[in-house]
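Our collaborator T.R. sent over the components below with a one-line note: 'Predict the complex.' Nothing else. No constraints on interfaces, no templates requested, no preferences about which chain binds where. So this is a plain run: every listed entity goes in together, and whatever single assembly comes back becomes the starting point for the next discussion.
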Amino acid sequence: KRIAVLPGDGIGQEVMEEAVRVLKAVADCFDHKFEFTEGLIGGAAIDAVGNPLPPETLDICKESDAILLGAVGGPKWSDVPSDIRPEKGLLGLRKEMGLFANLRPVTAYRQLVNASPLKREVIENVDLMIVRELTGGIYFGKSERRGENQDIAVDTLQYDVKEIERIVEKAFQLARVRRKKLTSVDKANVLESSRMWREIVDQISVKYPDVEVEHMLVDSTAMKLIHHPETFDVVVTENMFGDILSDEASMIAGSLGMLPSASLRSDSAGLYEPVHGSAPDIAGENKANPLAMILSAAMMLKYSFHLEKEAHAVESAVTEVLNQGYCTPDVGISGKCIGTKEMIDKVMDKLN
Amino acid sequence: KRIAVLPGDGIGQEVMEEAVRVLKAVADCFDHKFEFTEGLIGGAAIDAVGNPLPPETLDICKESDAILLGAVGGPKWSDVPSDIRPEKGLLGLRKEMGLFANLRPVTAYRQLVNASPLKREVIENVDLMIVRELTGGIYFGKSERRGENQDIAVDTLQYDVKEIERIVEKAFQLARVRRKKLTSVDKANVLESSRMWREIVDQISVKYPDVEVEHMLVDSTAMKLIHHPETFDVVVTENMFGDILSDEASMIAGSLGMLPSASLRSDSAGLYEPVHGSAPDIAGENKANPLAMILSAAMMLKYSFHLEKEAHAVESAVTEVLNQGYCTPDVGISGKCIGTKEMIDKVMDKLN
Ligand SMILES: CC(C)[C@H](C(=O)O)[C@@H](O)C(=O)O
Ligand SMILES: CC(C)[C@H](C(=O)O)[C@@H](O)C(=O)O
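Returned assembly:
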């Protein structure tokens, strides 16, 4: 299996190193062969070649079976022109690779309940997955200034039927192998694209009679995600709503440092990255939490390579280490505070 | 002072009755004269005249010094065509009256801390105000289906400089009389309208050197609102982001039943309504929480009539009643549970 490795910026570098270390151990244990090819992306690529997504990187990704990404961005590049900002590298990669389905699972680790701003009884039984459309909507619609004096700014939220159908199908399939409940989130009382979205969900739902479907407005969802997060199983929504709601939902877990993500398309290719950013303030200090990155690697084993057993081994190792009370400083709870590398040492102990 | 009274649907009727009762008491106590004129809106107006915002209602509003609104909508009207849905009455009223600034204060009542899904220490010191742009953006941009087979849906997020300037000015003015901190929320790494928004905030900030300004991305804000809500003072943002974030923030208070809102323009006219909806499931049962409605009336006294003392009297009366442990059933905490009318009886006792 060929894996493209894009560390990116800030703590992306460190957590990626640890993920590769874990994957090599998994390969040894289970007798697989993983081949890693590194590429530049984001600020690191801007510094090296003036382009946040160099063509060579895109080639590496296209020739790989899966992509691991660390994190991109940082204040260092806040003044570069907006068309070559580090984020453009990430957005470009998603779009070019056609990775239309962003999966963000949220579970509250029992051990980290003190880190969450939410009450224990609210988060105890949370096990939800946000499925966000990732290559359409207002992120990729026409965007311009117009009018004399350029004093009107316009962005366009556009979806066609096919784009909505494929993400909704994906969400139904995921719901079917989970608790069989799908919440589709929109703003149908205001947006035409939401009304079309709702129609398509209703049409497709006929094929999944075993999955319970509900429609919920995005504003109500923003409330209910905090008030009764345990009532959600799979939540499917368009790109921008998904961006906001998945970040909101991440607070259930207490720490961004625990949350993985997968970006998929219809075949088995995928991009796997932690939900957290590049955290330049703690970069290079062996303080970053590597668990989101290695849990993303576990998602890769599962979704791109169909290595369920191996994915499970990584996830269990993480849980065991947390059970022993270890954590990195970011989590902000009183535990046995250890560094990035030491955390992965512990995880590797459990793996073997 | 002439007040337009639009009860609307569901519990809107009941809570409005109570608000009028309180306002009459305030008028007596402080020797003012309030004149109330009732109008139809939302589902009630659809049923009566087939239009969620009849011209007569708009006339009443235009001839009044302020508007009180209960709530609109309900499943009863879920099948009416989208151009005459109950919500269209509300959106039309905001737009026709030019009420571009929606103010939603969020404070966590000490007495209701058990009702919040957030931990006590997280919400204890929260005192924030979301200022949402209310008459522009994707709510009012061009929206259509196109393509052969009508299989493309498009919504347009559009702002011009003037629309952004006036809401940002309003937010700075509010921050100046509060804790002097303004958080401007956008998605400048993706949207052109957000980049223009950010530029305008920076320009206007020069006039308010005493106000500290920060820019925050909408996704980060969705996290921080739950993680560290006490760090916010005034939060200003565009229409759709404001819809989502203000509903999210309402969970801090624990109950929607406590949250008022004001929708203002540059003169002293304003529309005042509770944040909660029409709650058809409990309508007519004397169970609705009337406090959000009367706190909205208090905002009217303050923002439209500049009757600070009177507004304060209503707010203090509410706090005193809560201090005695009374609450309506919606709040869901163990307290002295009383009905809609009884709650207002208690408030009136404190007023006199
Ligand atoms: C960096 C940014 C453009 C990106 C997004 O909004 O998609 C990020 O917030 C994310 O969620 O991955
Ligand atoms: C009813 C709906 C159109 C409205 C909105 O989105 O503005 C409501 O959610 C609100 O926040 O007042």
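Summary for T.R.: Residues A 87, 90-91, 243; B 189-190, 219 surround 3-isopropylmalic acid (ligand 1) (CB under 6 Å).
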